[in-house]
Amino acid sequence: MKTSNFFPALAVGLTSAVTVGLAAPNAQAATIETHYYELGSHPDGLEATPAYGKRQDGINGLFDDSGPATEDEVTFDFDDPASDMNMTYVVDSDPTESVINITGTAFGGVDMGATYGETFSAVIDFTYKQIDTDEKYFAEVNGPDYFGEGTLMVDGQTIYLRAKDAGGNFFNLGTDFRGEPGLSGWGWLQYSLDEENWYGSADGRTADWLFTAEKVPEPTMTLGLLAVGGLLVSRRKRQSEV
């Protein structure tokens, strides 16, 4: 499990989650619990290998700000050493104020079969609201009052992302998806440079999430343990120098 950059990335995600989800207009709403996850590539993506956690066909055509999108199949490998993708799920007593935030850095490129052609690294920050739960899925985002949007940045170019309706469903978290026994996340997306002309999942270009999610400890607790550990090391060092 990659943990070297989890907490800096998580801090960004928590900021987004707090901004979007915790400033609830309903004074009675309250956070019940918060779950933290490290994301990986799903083994059963239709364009694997390389395996990926996000597919965004044609997005490379927008990187030079010239557009329109290309027909290329573009995927992002969340397990690559250069990737560090995380997710925070804030469960609120009012489901309309529950938040899922997906954030981090993902390495990917134009799929050429078993390898990439053109490659790039993207900074991703995406937030869902209106989170429901049921017996089948741990969490799901359904219409009509959904919320799902964010950004993907490559080389200073900001590309806008939004959730795409697939029969009244936008995003899911659940187990046993496509043969993966652990928790998986999947959902549909569109993307744009100007938030007017949208590509993906409606024009023959596939754009979606398909990742695995491994739960990790609450960061404040872990950071506290790290701080205590550092203090003990510092004390031991000073004592050895006396």
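(the above was protein one; protein two follows)
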Amino acid sequence: MTDIRKFLADVEKSKKMCRQNNGGAYDYHKLADNLQRLFNRASGCPTELPDTIFNYWENAYVLNSPDLQNEPSSDHLEKLAAMLAFLNNSDEMSELLTDEDWQEIGSLVGYEADDLPIDILQDLMKILVEHNAY
């Protein structure tokens, strides 16, 4: 199982526990902090960039959803997994990210560039250039 598939499996376990601890009802706000911790732990990036990318994903895809009670949807989780793959220097699932996603991720990386180790920055920049984020 890849790290990305493990992350998605861990998220599903978290969602299940959230429902069990909430009388069978689902509440994204109760899941959000744990989801962000899982994302950060799975990321190989040692800076604030994972939090920043998670916040972008959450605001762009989850909190704007007309069906918040069923978020994160499997499509939205796969987008988050693609963002995680990017942070881990992988192109896995990158086709799920839109041009707008790549542009925003490129901006976020640029904002955090001073704090990133040079080798990680170079790897991320290579992927961003391949996806025309610059």
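Reviewer note on protein two: The two ends are 32 Å apart (CA to CA).
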